[in-house]
Specification:
By secondary structure, this protein is an alpha/beta fold. The chain has eleven helices and 18 strands. The strands form four sheets. Strands 3, 5, 6, 7, 8, 17 and 18 form a seven-stranded mixed beta sheet that branches. A six-stranded parallel beta sheet has the order 11-10-9-12-14-16, with helices on both faces. The chain is globular, with a radius of gyration of 20 Å.
Length: 355
């Protein structure tokens, strides 16, 4: 007896880090969905530059192989047993390292997926997968009404963090050292400024405390020190929240003053927990935070409400067979913060950024 289509593995192409600075495209089997899983035929996937360039560099250094990507959007093709809330034909987003990879067909745990509402395009919806990281980071910041926020780093995560904090009603300024990145970010309706002069400024808003969310990469000794001084100039509680991959030496002393330092890893309780993702286990998020499933939905809701504006971020789109070109461009740190891969058959390559 021939297995029904939903029960068969499907051939697909995916991107893999395989011992070189740029990825390779290989054919592989996408398995049929098991218990608690969905199989999704992708329309778009979103590159997370910091994470993916990190693993490309690691692969080039060690020879390890990594399927790249963890942010996908498309149409549910098949639903495994015990995966409630989804049906074939639903439009959805999916995330998960090693699951929602850059491939034409992916399989992921249903708790790492959300249905996309009517009227929202998949190219915009896929941004919610990375925006869940921003939602989690802002939760970790413990913002109160009246707190002033500085977001350091106008890359994709920084732009999403700034929009998420602004949607809560806080005064937010997005900082970077690059004028081209700031010019692009200003199109989102955010206040932007050059990092060093802003953090050195003495003006304070007396309504609340100050929080700096650090979304950059590399060595950040001076930036962290300047951020601590800036946060400490307000009368309320000063906080630093690390979000990106960076290194900094902090000299703890009484001169530093009272300062809360936190790190926001990933996108909420239950992420990278295969049992939770497939409904076999439960997790409890700390007070004031959410599970990855909740944060995915909150990010999607922010896009629907206009709190996060993917179209205004003008992310370029590439077909998957031009992935090497896309990553080479990201290594050069262009003005745009990330790229989308299109998996739609017959889509023409977009030479310029999406409107």
């Amino acid at each position: 007896m021939t297995a029904p289509p939903a029960a068969r593995a499907l051939r697909t192409r995916r991107l893999v880090a395989k011992g070189a600075p740029l990825p390779v495209l290989e054919e592989t089997d996408c398995p049929a969905p098991g218990p608690g899983e969905l199989r999704v035929r992708a329309a778009y996937s979103l590159v997370s530059p910091g994470t993916e360039l990190h693993y490309l560099d690691r692969s080039a250094r060690t020879g390890e192989a990594f399927p790249l990507g963890y942010c996908s959007a498309g149409v549910v093709e098949a639903v495994g047993p015990d995966a409630p809330g989804f049906a074939p034909g639903d439009r959805g987003i999916a995330m998960g390292w090693g699951e929602a990879v850059h491939a034409g067909v992916i399989t992921a745990g249903y708790r790492l997926c959300r249905r996309v509402p009517d009227g929202l395009g998949l190219a915009d919806a896929v941004v919610a997968t990375l925006a869940a990281t921003a939602v989690h980071a802002v939760d970790r910041a413990g913002l109160a009404p009246g707190d002033e926020v500085a977001v350091v780093g106008a890359g994709i995560v920084g732009q999403l963090v700034a929009q998420t904090a602004a949607a809560r009603g806080n005064r937010v300024t997005l900082l970077d050292v690059r004028q081209d990145r700031l010019k692009e970010a200003a199109a989102l309706g955010l206040d932007v400024a050059e990092a060093a002069p802003f953090l050195a400024g003495t003006r304070t808003w007396a309504e609340g405390g100050r929080c700096v969310l650090l979304c950059g990469t590399g060595d950040a000794d001076e930036t962290v020190a300047a951020a601590a001084r800036w946060a400490g100039r307000a009368s309320g509680r000063p906080r630093l929240v690390g979000v990106g991959r960076f290194a900094a030496r902090v000299e703890f002393s009484v001169e530093l003053g009272n300062l809360d330092i936190r790190y926001a890893a990933r996108c909420g309780a239950g992420y990278r927990d295969a049992a939770y993702a497939r409904g076999r286990a439960e997790v409890t998020a700390p007070d004031g935070e959410g599970t990855v499933t909740e944060n995915l939905q909150r990010a999607l809701d922010l896009i629907v409400s206009g709190g996060i504006r993917p179209a205004a971020m003008r992310l370029p789109r590439f077909p998957l067979d031009r992935a090497g070109e896309a990553y080479a461009e990201l290594r050069a740190r262009p003005a745009h913060p990330a790229v989308l891969f299109s998996h739609r058959t017959g889509d023409r390559p977009e030479e310029h950024r999406a409107p």
